[in-house]
Every structure is written in C-alpha cells, then in structure tokens.
Design a protein that fits this description.
Distance between the termini: 22 Å
Shape: globular
Family: Belongs to the TER reductase family.
Bound molecules: nicotinamide-adenine-dinucleotide, sodium ion
Pathway: Lipid metabolism; fatty acid biosynthesis
Largest sheet: 7 strands, parallel
GO molecular function: enoyl-[acyl-carrier-protein] reductase (NADH) activity; NAD binding; trans-2-enoyl-CoA reductase (NADH) activity
CATH topology: Rossmann fold
Protein name: Enoyl-[acyl-carrier-protein] reductase [NADH]
Enzyme class: oxidoreductase
CATH architecture: 3-Layer(aba) Sandwich
Number of domains: 1
Structural class: alpha/beta
Order of helices and strands: EEHEHEHEHEEEEEHHEHEHHEHHH
Number of helices: 12
Length: about 400
C-alpha cells in the first residue's frame, strides 16, 4: 500500500515500515560508531522494548556489548491495508538486523502488566539464555490491568493542589497558547496514576524472574524517570506522574532485597526530555523540549534516545571500575546535560518570550515536528512516500 502520515490529535495513525527500519539502522550505526562497552551486559530483558528509551536500550546492549536480548512490547500487528504501529515495525527490523549480525533477539508480544506475559518471558529466558544480567524497565502506558485485583487503572497527567497555567504549543500548527490544567479532584486519581506508572509492576516482574531462577549473579535492573525544570514541575515532578516516579524510587530497596541472593542492584535513571510518543502527550512539555533542543543543539550537546542509552550503559551502569555514579538520592542522572545551569538559563529566557510569531526562529519546533514524524518512519529523505510498500512485516521470533 501507499503509506502517508495520518494524524489525529498528537498521535500518528499510520507508520512506514521502511522508515522505521531505517531508524533502527541509524541507531545501530550510532552504537557501532561509538565502540564497545567493556563489561557491558550480555543477556538482557527489556520491558517496553519497541520504541523510545526501551528500544534504544536494547540496541545499545546488543550492539554495544554483543548482548542477547529479549524484548517485551505490545503493539498493533499489521493487517491487509492497515499498517502496524511503530513498535511492531521497529521490533521486526531490530530482529532482522540482529539475526544478520549473529545476535540473539526474540520478542514477547502482549500486555507486560499481565502475569502471563511475565511468565512467558521468564520461561523464554530459562529455555534460551538461562539467566539475564540486566532488566530494563521502560514502560509508558496510560492504563494498567492489575493482575492481582483485576482492576483496570487509568493514569492522568494533572497538577496536584492548584490549577496550573502556562504556555503550551500545538507542534503541528506551530502555535503557542496559554493553557490551564485543572488539578486532580480526588486522591484516587493520584493513586491510580501510581498504580499504572509506579513501581508495583516493576516489583512483580522481579518477583516472577526471581522465582523462576533466571536472575544472574550481579544482575542489574533499571527503570526510567524524569525530573525536568521548575517550569514543568506542576505538571510533571509535582504532578500525578511525578508521584508515580517517586513510587518507582521507593521500590528500589524492595528490589535490592528481592535480588540479594544474586547480589543484584536496582536503579532509577533520570533521563533527558525527548520526543517520544509518550512525551508528546504531556501538555507544556513539548514547548519546553523544542526550546531545549535548540539550545542543546547550539551547544553541541543534544542527544536522542540512543545517545542517552549508550551513555547510560558506558558511563553509568557499566563503568570501567564497576562503580555506578548516582546522585544524593541514589538515582542515576543522565539528564545532567539537560539540567546544566547554562542550558536551563537560556531555555528559561526563551520560554518567557516565546510566541506563535517568534517560535520558528527561537525554538527548534521544526526539529520537534520532524522527530515526531520520524518516530513513525516519515520525513526520511531517502524514501519516496508515493511508492507502494508491503505493510505486512512479520516479526521473526513471533511466527
Ligand atoms: P515510549 O512510548 O516510546 O515507549 C513505551 C514502551 O512501552 C513501548 O515499547 C510500548 O510498547 C511499551 N508498552 C506500553 N504499555 C505496554 C504494555 N501494557 N505491555 C507491553 N508493553 C507496553 O515511551 P518512552 O518515552 O520511551 O518512555 C519509557 C520510559 O522512559 C517511561 O518510564 C518514561 O516516563 C521515561 N522517560 C521518558 C522521557 C521522555 O522525555 N520521553 C524522559 C525521561 C524518562
Ligand atoms: Na521505551
């Protein structure tokens, strides 16, 4: 079929299999250009492996230290006349490349929150790898069906205590406007967001893997978080999602305890703000990202998910002397360049003056929009989007 972008709100409904495969290749080439990660992981489970930070973590492990990887994801399979989602095509492409390069890569497709998928992943590890030495937890989801209570929980992106008014951008139209987001009305909204994006599911995963005996000696697990600048605190750090991230941090000692027999270690890594399907759904944040990109690109310190994942492995989780540098709260910080004083001071200056009229000039809104469409395999200059492509792309390990 001929595949062109079709959007609804902030989401893109179509995906291009060749464009997404090229994205995966570019990430692989980046890691290859950087060289090996000495002492890097060898057998890796990535939960949320098909897009964003999870996909990049998988690629950094596979191509940085030759790791065998099992990726858990959910996504839409393609059908005649209907494209798959990006995660599906990315996973198919990654498995193909890995196979060509002699790297083990298999995927588990389904709801990562369910016990069935956890047990299927544990069984696959046991059968093919014996154990894992790294578990990356990189889920971003709006809902979670709790397998214990059977309750369906929904997360919200809201401030707590008071309404939050600030600028926001419609990145498709390039217009800046003011938005007021009402705070949560009930504690339940906070609790439910914690249920979806907090540490409970991470803990269930480690429990299942521990019981199955598939945690290797000195296993590490890492989950991803975000803090960001003060201007987004009401909607992020101090909002409902921020409470879920605090819960993730609170889960770390429990996981360390669960993994003590194998001398395991759990970490929360605070990552940089980036264009992903998840972050584009948060109000206010895309305007911040478009200003941040401009400044970080000017300073030559811009990173995408693959640069972040590689640096996380090389300079944090698998350093030459084995020490894992953390902040005063025990968190890994790979948002260090984003949070540099000079970067934040310049973003803040631009934030104050940003309008629809000057946006194209003072921000990297074009880069934002471009990267957003790239997530779905569009805006690739090497592809003719008027040419028919086969939308049915199988994932080798799921056949
Ligand atoms: P993303 O949407 O690109 O990736 C989410 C992944 O989760 C996908 O692989 C998806 O298939 C998978 N997933 C979601 N629900 C699932 C389910 N029920 N079962 C199986 N798989 C499921 O998002 P991302 O931005 O890469 O986010 C990953 C993590 O990184 C999140 O914890 C997020 O908060 C964090 N983070 C994001 C940013 C950012 O700016 N994007 C910054 C710092 C931290
Ligand atoms: Na991810």
């Amino acid at each position: 079929m001929i595949i062109q972008p079709r959007t609804r709100g902030f989401i893109c409904l179509t995906c291009h299999p060749v464009g997404t495969a090229n994205n995966v290749k570019k990430q692989i080439q980046y890691v290859q250009s950087q060289g090996a990660i000495e002492n890097g992981p060898k057998k890796v489970l990535v939960i949320g492996a098909s897009t964003g930070f999870g996909l990049s973590s998988r690629i950094a492990a596979a191509y940085g230290s030759g790791a065998a990887t099992i990726g858990v994801f959910h996504g839409k399979a393609p059908s005649k006349g209907k494209t798959a989602n990006a995660g599906w095509y990315n996973t198919a492409a990654f498995e193909n490349d890995a196979a060509k390069d002699g790297l083990y890569a298999k995927s588990v497709h389904g709801d990562a929150f369910s016990m069935e998928v956890k047990e299927a992943a544990a069984a696959l590890i046991k059968k093919d790898l014996g154990t894992v030495d790294l578990i990356v937890y990189s889920l971003a989801a709006p809902k979670r069906l709790d397998p214990i209570s059977g309750t369906n929980f929904s997360s919200v992106l809201k401030p707590i205590g008071a309404p939050f008014s600030n600028k926001t951008v419609d990145f498709h139209a390039g217009t800046v406007s003011n938005i007021t987001i009402q705070p949560v009305e009930k504690q339940e909204e906070i609790d439910n967001t914690i249920k979806v994006m907090g540490g409970e599911d991470w803990k269930l995963w480690i429990e299942v893997l521990e019981k199955a005996g598939v945690l290797g000696e000195n296993v590490k697990t890492v989950a991803y978080s975000y803090i960001g600048p003060e201007l987004t605190f009401p909607i992020y750090k101090n909002g409902t999602i921020g409470q879920a991230k605090i819960d993730l941090e609170k889960t770390v000692p429990t996981l360390n305890d669960l993994m003590k027999d194998v001398h395991g270690a759990a970490y929360v890594s605070v990552n940089k703000a980036l264009v992903t399907q998840s972050s584009s759904a948060i109000p206010v944040v895309p305007l911040y990202i478009s200003l941040l990109y401009k400044i970080m690109k000017e300073k030559g310190i811009h990173e995408g998910t693959i640069e972040q994942a590689y640096r996380l492995f090389k300079e944090r989780l698998y350093t030459a002397d084995g020490a894992v540098p953390v902040d005063e709260a025990g968190r890994i910080r790979i948002d260090d360049w984003e949070m540099r004083d000079d970067v934040q001071a310049e973003v803040s200056k631009l934030w104050d003056i940003a309008t629809s009229e000057n946006l194209a000039e003072i921000s990297d809104i074009e880069g934002y929009r471009n990267e957003f469409f790239e997530l779905f395999g569009f805006n690739d200059p090497t592809i003719d989007y008027d040419v028919e492509v086969d939308e049915i792309v199988p994932i080798a390990s799921l056949e």
